[in-house]
Amino acid sequence: MTKTWLDFIGFAPKIAALRQAHELRGLPNACLVQGRSGSGKRMFAAAMCALYFCESKNACGQCKGCWEVVARNQADILWLDTEDGIIKLADAELVQDHLQMKPFTVGGRRIAIISHADKLNRQAANRLLKIIEEPAADSMIILTTARPKAMLPTILSRCVKFRVGLPPKADVLSLLRTSSKDLSEARLEHIWVMAGGTVGAALQQLEASSQSEADEQLDLVYRTNDRAAVLAQAELLDKLKLAPQEWGRQFEYWLNKVYKQADCPASDFVQPERIRKRREILKYLKAYRIAFNSRLNLESLALASTKKL
Fold first, then answer.
1. pLDDT tens for residues 26-78?
2. Is 71 exposed, middle or buried (0-12, 13-18, 19+ CB in 10 A)?
3. Which of 14, 88, 161, 229 is within CB 3.0–4.6 Å of 224 for a Cys-Cys bond?
4. CB 113 within 8 A of CB 4
5. Backbone torsions φ then ψ of 286, nearest 5 degrees
6. CA-to-CA distance for 95 and 75, rounded, in angstroms?
7. What is the rounded CA–CA span in Å between residue 295 and residue 231?
8. pTM of the entire structure?
9. Is the Cβ–Cβ distance between 65 and 53 less than 8 Å?
10. Which helix (H) or strand (E) holds 294?
């Protein structure tokens, strides 16, 4: 099911304040949503848009109109995203063309959401400034950034600012605890610190932690020639509950390492022909997206590769 702002930790008071501001005076035509990376700025921007497309006009987060906003299926909203690239003049012209059209939705607005607005180049920034200074009827621009100081001061001065702060530490730790029950409290605390307190970054850290754990377990399998040890690692891999496709990538990476070692005279771990065969099987499984059991694969590999059974 599509996640909305209702599913984001710490968003309830922010959305309540946003609704109140909308009811009292409406939202301005130029808004800047700022906050740390992973704090949920784009979801907050989606909630702002939903005030105009929600069936109850209060960003309920549960109706078809709200879901269309979050799923980016609302024709009156243009999402301009960039992670590593630069926002160029052509992008700003696209925004201008979008905002000049009349809304398709009755009572709606033509809205452009520009993520990472600090990556506007000089030409794009100047064009955007003109768009903000001469807004089209029923139009709205929402900029998001984690680096407002890197933006053109004249653009900053013309935007009404909204800050997406950090959720309570206890709530983030509770979410992490629910998402990964196998990690210790000290490890969860470390993830929270490394994420700077943001939920998005914390979940990425958690995924990376699980990925690192999978690498370590596979490496143990790689370095052992004892069947009991291989089966023990299979038990641990089962606990990681990796998706079949993700486990396939990890397993293929491990097989590549084993294949290289198999050609070494000192290696008696596995026969090259068997590795080649297993790689062919793995590619077949991935190509046809066939789910496979990680433990069965490891057990089979243990039987095929262990010197003494």
1. 899 999 999 888 888 999 999 999 999 999 889 999 999 999 999 999 999 99
2. exposed
3. 229
4. no
5. -70, -40
6. 13
7. 8
8. 0.64
9. yes
10. helix 294-305
